[in-house]
Amino acid sequence: MIRFGLPLLVFALFLIEGTLFQIFVPPSFERDIVLVPRLTLIAIVMISIFRGAGLGMLYGVVVGLFYDFVYTDLIGVYMFSLGFVAYISSFTFTAVRTSYWWQFLITLGALFVLEWMTYGLHYVIGNTDIVFEEFFMTRMLPSWMLNGLVALLLLYPFQQFFHKLKELEELQQR
């Protein structure tokens, strides 16, 4: 039963991003900023840190494919970007696995890389005509700050979840 916990958690975060967040912080034409929640990215980074690059990339590609189907008309941008971000954030050093602040810095870097990569790919393909300065000030920086705050709140529960998962797996192997 425990093996379904992680996929269900990631799927629940994906649903929360698209539903509950939109209720509490609805998009507005009066604001110049766009807030984009990335709860699943935080989970994928933690999976990459605690479970390795392979599983992190698998979750990144699958969730990216969900993003592409649900939110965009172009298949592959989020699939590639989330898989790549999962790979580059898979630090398996003991210091990273035990340090809350290292995990927070890696998550902030992953958020920045994901936003920058998806914008760059859409800009190169021609799906957007927004200049980078406008994108940075209206979407990237506000979303980065929002997700950084959410990461501060979610990293400790994720850390505890993965430690508990490791303990349960060790018990099953005995």
From TrEMBL:
InterPro entries: Cell_shape_determining_MreD
Localization: Cell membrane
Membrane-related topology note: Multi-pass membrane protein
Membrane spanning residue stretches: 6-27, 39-63, 69-88, 100-121, 141-158
Annotated keywords: Cell membrane, Cell shape, Membrane, Transmembrane, Transmembrane helix
Cellular component GO terms held in the UniProt record: plasma membrane
A UniProt-annotated Pfam family: MreD
Transmembrane among keywords: yes
One GO process term, biological-process aspect: regulation of cell shape
Main location: membrane
Superkingdom field: Bacteria
Similarity comment: Belongs to the MreD family.
Official protein name in the record: Rod shape-determining protein MreD
Underlying gene: mreD
